[in-house]
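explain this:
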Amino acid sequence: RLPRQTSWAPPEREASPLAGFYPGRISTPPTLQWMVLSPPYTIAFSNQEFYGGDLITFPSAQPRSFSVDLVRLPGRYASGRNPMEAQAVAEESILFMRQHADAGTPPSLGVVSVNSDQRDLIEEEIRRLASEDEFVLRYQEKVAARGEPFFVKNLENVQGDERDYVFISMTYGPAVPGGAVAQRFGPIAGKHGHRRLNVLFTRARLRIMLFASFGSKDVRPSETSADGVRILKRYFEYAERRGYAEVADDAQPDSDFEVEVARRLRAAGLQVDHQVGVSGFRIDLGVRHPDDPEQFIAGVECDGARFHFSKSARDRDRLREEILTGLGWNIVRVWSTDWFDNPDLQTANVLRRIEELRLKPLPAWRGYRPASAAQTPVSSELLPNEVAAPVASEAESWTGVVPHEESAHVVAAVESQIVGELGSAPKHLLEGDGSLTAEELRAALRCFRETIIAANCEAWKPERCVLRESMIETLVAQRLDDPADWFNKVPNYLRVGTDPNEKRVYIEQICDLVARLQAEDTGPPVRPPAAHRANLLR
């Protein structure tokens, strides 16, 4: 079996206490080197911050598929709880379980909060929203039978648990939207808070979804702050920048042999990148898909210096290829002896193999597209040309900004909504009866929420609003333009979580806005695949 990831994360390497009794035999404890079950995007931060960049991670064949989704919410923190975050996490969890209920081997899911009060609130919300939901029950039975049951835990109790997907509720936030965030972060600010964060951020094998009511700017470490607070700020910066670039612009080829292979492939019209990866292991040549340059169609392995540096044939052949295949790579090997004997023949072989791969259907997006992530834009203040890169080469790789495809459609109004303010730009969308694009409709619904619903409802609870983010996505995706279709087009778990008075008062006006949506336009695919939508609406 492939080695599993571990949660042990020393902040620094200390000498073993037995070294004094056995001098020359015991110096430092063994450290983890291979991290093969997590994509490099989920582990890169911990690799740099806790392991000194020593972990060997493997590149993905989709270099822009960043694996940490940051969901910013205008939540409020009081008495150890954040109701809006709890509602958002519960709804996203139920959507996830319903979407995968009929999968043969559904991905596992875990939910983590930073304190026990928030954990209890999330559990309560999930129980309430999923009451007698046959799809949620079916999903939970399947993952439990595999030995990885769905769980909701707090930060102190999650060590040792791994799941394919992990939803994290950061819980803390301002007392009022747009207010200051108190610099009290519970166990994170404790003596071992940095270790707890490392455990938290390495629980997911495939993807992390981070729900938060604050950003990196709101975390202000002082000279006396614990390491955990500083790590927290840096992790939020990492998530806001959407990680790092897996392909360095200045990557140097490993050998003249590699240079010659790349030259011939480029002469054939292919786009080729050298040394694809971020730490430990790199693929010699990454060949971009001719029809979709955002994916690699093949990885070309040349038996150069890195190949011969591997300690065993098992490392450089069987294990590496198994891992890379699991990450979506098609590996093509070029042996130097064959190449030098007949380079034209070997070039033709590689090109023929790439053409065979090109004729296959493009791989679909593998994984879960969270609906809530649609509301969070890429931080405009952390774009690549505005950020000074750190000195360390590994740090340069994970602090570079890669704008994420799922955030490209998010309108500027979302960012103003996050801090509790609303720009004037979307207000004109509420007037008139002209058609709206999906982008404009989302902006108009958010504007309606902030300027009409929030302004006129006493004791307004945004987490139960009829136009909270998950509802907006559903209204747009299902084109709810007739109040009579409320029970047919809105899933039960969303209806249960909605304020009935708001729905009664505003549903007709909301439907009038949705009716202005242009034909055949529901925007980017933030909703579940069509095959699952019938089940999700039951």
About this structure: Residues 371 and 527 are 6 Å apart (CA to CA). The longest helix spans residues 438-456. Residues 1-22, 31-41, 374-425, 524-538 have pLDDT under 50 and may be disordered. Strands lie at 68-72, 109-113, 151-154, 163-169, 204-212, 272-279, 281-289, 292-302, 331-334.
